[in-house]
Amino acid sequence: MRGLILVSLWLAATIAQADVYISIDAKGGYVLTNVHRPGRHYERVISEPLAQAGPSDAQLITGRPYADVVAVAARIHDVPQALLHALIKAESGYNPRARSAAGAVGLMQLMPDTAREMGVEDRLDPEDNIQGGARYLKRMLKLFDNDITLAVAAYNAGPDAVLRRGAVPPFAETRRYVPAVLREYRKLQGLAADSPL
User: Fold this and answer.
1) Tens place of pLDDT for every residue, the chain, 197 residues?
2) Which residue, 26, 79, 190, 192, shows the most beta carbons closer than 10 Å to its own?
3) Residue 194 lies in a domain
4) What does pTM read for this prediction?
């Protein structure tokens, strides 16, 4: 009987991801719990594993501004939601009215020519802007063989600057931008700062 209980405990813990304790009540029966009750002796039979990266960190993404719009764009263009959010944070700080001195506009700071090329009609419309930015990001990922570092560098400095060097260009802005985006991308995925991409 105790073996069956322990197997049940193991299955429950793998689904619920919580510490499980066992004690014996006054009648000699087993009591399973994930909380301590006064006056009882407990023995931990299953320990909760440390938080893992991935879906458990989905709250970091779903709690962001424009999360639904980003999720749709990510699915349509087959790019990581976390990467879109990291780009938006770096580009505009989630300000849909952001404008750069160079003429980039909106959440993903689309330049006029890039926006036209990506089929964006209204660069200040958050949905249109994110769709265009996701489409452009997908193009950069394809161009650079899914090398996220180079794709992010190209998003900032332009693909020609990256292609000419075969690396992140030595522009001061791009050298600050790429690590910031990658740091945020890893954070949103629940990864360590030095995890490979």
Assistant:
1) 554 444 444 444 444 445 666 777 778 777 776 654 555 566 766 655 433 334 434 667 878 899 999 999 999 999 999 999 999 999 999 999 999 999 999 999 999 999 999 999 999 999 999 999 999 999 999 999 999 999 999 999 999 999 999 999 999 999 999 999 999 999 998 888 888 87
2) 79
3) no
4) 0.70
Instruction: Please give the Cα distance from 59 to 103 (Å, whole number).
Output: 33
Catalytically active residues are: 91
For the chain, how many structural domains are there in total?
Answer: 2
Q: Examine residue 127 and state whether it is found in any structural domain, yes or no.
A: yes
**Residue 111's beta-bridge partner residues?**
none
Question: Got the DSSP string for 124-150?
Answer: TSHHHHHHHHHHHHHHHHHHTTT-HHH
